[in-house]
Amino acid sequence: MQTDFQSAHPLQVTGLEIGYKTKKEVHSLATDLNFTLPPGSLNAVVGVNGVGKSTLLRTLSGMHPTLQGKVHLQGIPLDDMEPLRRAQCLSVVLTEPLASKNLTVTELVRLGRHPYTNWIGQLSPADRTRVAFALDRMELQPIADQPCHTLSDGQLQRTLIGRALAQDTPLMLLDEPTTHLDLYHKVNILKLLKQVAHTAGKTILFSTHEIDLAIQLCDQILILDADFSQFGSPCQLIESGAFEKLFPTDTIRFDRTTGMFKVNK
Amino acid sequence: MKTSKNAGYIFGGLFFLLILACLANLSLGSVPIPLDDILGSLFGGEIGRESWRYIIWNYRLPKALTALLVGGGLSLSGLLMQTLFRNPLAGPFVLGVSSGASLGAAILIMGASLIGGLGAHYLTSDLSLILASGLGSLLVLFTVLVVATRLKDAMALLIVGLMFGSITAALVTVLSYFSPAEQLQQYIFWSYGSVGNLSWTQVGLLAIFFLAGVGISVGLLKALNALLLGERYAASMGISTTRTRNWIILATGLLAGGITAFAGPIAFIGLAVPHLARQLLGTQDHRVLLPAVLLYGGILMLLCDMIAQLPFSAYVLPINAITSLVGAPVIIWLLIRQNRMVF
């Protein structure tokens, strides 16, 4: 166990139980989650609506308390981390709307440098390089000076990912980054994420409903389920028949040969 | 960059306007004093009449300084509240600070008469009014802070602040129902607000509140910018949202509470100036907006005071009415002209 504790995986989850606790009762969503994300990998969380994908991401980012189990970032327990240290280990892209849509793309991406800047938020040359890198990687240069309220959904999503990328953390957590986008932009976002994971060495974990796309693009997938969650490469999960059990079989079934869901006619 | 160069010009312009407004404010009043004599009396030169020197040093200069502190301070607390609650309608008084001050003043003015005539007159001096309204603000501020630590959601806090406002307003209504006309009038005069009649010591005290509030806000600049993305994003970037929220409440309380204690509840400036400054500078960056609202608010308050003094006449209009009467059309005009609000 001691060696696990000291390993520098961007994210390591052991025996995690997620859910909500009120004074009266404990409402558990999923139990006994165990997985480790290697550096530079693209990982998806899939599962039916309400199974707790967002809760899992919130728990992993330290915004929501765990019910049981351990989360380690870079080998350090999440609970022991100072907020600033945590902000240098993980960045997030949320589904909630921005409080202010009048920031320009560049201004928004620059805010990602907050954990590194001085008391007044002044950018150093190194910070500026990092912002330029993020703008470049997310193909934001052409819209760099536009205010966020003028952006399309796809552009806004790329901007938000750009901000997380500027935060320059080993781990990036994204909550449904492809919702509201058409197929082209879904694939566009996911391919950019894959590129970031593999070439910039970031470990990315995102929740999604696009299981077919996740199967094609991700290194690993976590199938979140109340009783029996599974984690593995897409091939392993297809072999083990994990996707078949995801939805009730009376309306859709999983086709192993194509790796896609088919509607039962 | 283009924007920062523009900002330089805009700040230069604001400074120039501020000095202009200051001089005009000193010059105009029931007795108009020529500009030469104002400069003369300020910098120890020649002066036409000795009485003018007295008027400037003991009446107009403290009044102009008060206007400057009141306008700037209220505008800054408005900016803080708008950012904290992500709401363009938030102003310095949404947390009930001014209602608390009103209650303090009302209890002093009207309550004293209910308890008994003895010493009532002595109680309602200027100084005790300042103390009472200050204590009222402080009481509400601490209650809000206690509630704030129990609430997760900033929006819930906004509602709580409004509720405190309703409760105190209701108490004031009950008090005024039982009060004789004379006391009622005195209370109403207090609620008109005034930037005049402060001694140099009182202006000094007000300046301490102002500087403390501004100082805290400067320390919060980075957190305020992070809050532009929402509380959860701010938290994900290492900002402690509860601590930030408490400091924002404290700064607002010091600014709005202190100002209301010394100058009465002055409406509108705190709500409007942050919008005007955002529109003028076209940015959301608090590092730019903080000095901008201080200058802009100061200028606007000096102008409103000038109008309220009704130059060349012995009448003084309630400043509270002037701020809205002058300010509201300006806001409407700006919104229609630009057709979009920067928030």
TrEMBL record, chain A:
Q: Which PROSITE patterns match?
A: ABC_TRANSPORTER_2
The protein's location, in the record's own words, is:
Cell membrane
Task: Give the source species.
Answer: Robiginitalea aurantiaca
Q: Which SMART domains match?
A: AAA
Q: What PANTHER family has UniProt attached to this entry? A: IRON(3+)-HYDROXAMATE IMPORT ATP-BINDING PROTEIN FHUC
**Organism lineage:** Bacteria, Pseudomonadati, Bacteroidota, Flavobacteriia, Flavobacteriales
Q: Which residues form the ABC transporter domain?
A: 11-251
What protein does this entry describe?
ABC transporter ATP-binding protein
Q: Name the SUPFAM superfamilies on file.
A: P-loop containing nucleoside triphosphate hydrolases
InterPro entries xrefs: AAA+_ATPase (IPR003593), ABC_transporter-like_ATP-bd (IPR003439), P-loop_NTPase (IPR027417), Siderophore_ABC-ATPase (IPR051535)
CDD domains the record matches = ABC_Iron-Siderophores_B12_Hemin (cd03214)
Against Pfam families, the record matches this protein to:
ABC_tran (PF00005)
Ordered alphabetically, the record's keywords are: ATP-binding, Cell membrane, Ion transport, Iron, Iron transport, Membrane, Nucleotide-binding, Transport
Q: Name one GO molecular function term.
A: ATP binding
Q: Does the keyword Electron transport apply?
A: no
Classify the protein's membrane topology as the record does.
Peripheral membrane protein
From TrEMBL, chain B:
Q: What topology in the membrane does the UniProt record assign?
A: Multi-pass membrane protein
Q: What is the similarity comment for this entry?
A: Belongs to the binding-protein-dependent transport system permease family. FecCD subfamily.
Q: Where are the transmembrane segments?
A: 64-81, 93-115, 127-148, 155-178, 198-227, 247-268, 315-336
> What's the protein called, per UniProt?
Iron ABC transporter permease
InterPro entries this protein is in? ABC_BtuC-like, ABC_transptr_permease_BtuC
Q: Which UniProt keywords apply?
A: Cell membrane, Membrane, Transmembrane, Transmembrane helix, Transport
Q: Which Pfam families match?
A: FecCD
Where in or outside the cell is it found?
Cell membrane
Q: What is its main location?
A: membrane
Tell me the leader sequence span. none
Annotated SUPFAM superfamilies: ABC transporter involved in vitamin B12 uptake, BtuC (SSF81345)
Per the record, the domain of life is Bacteria
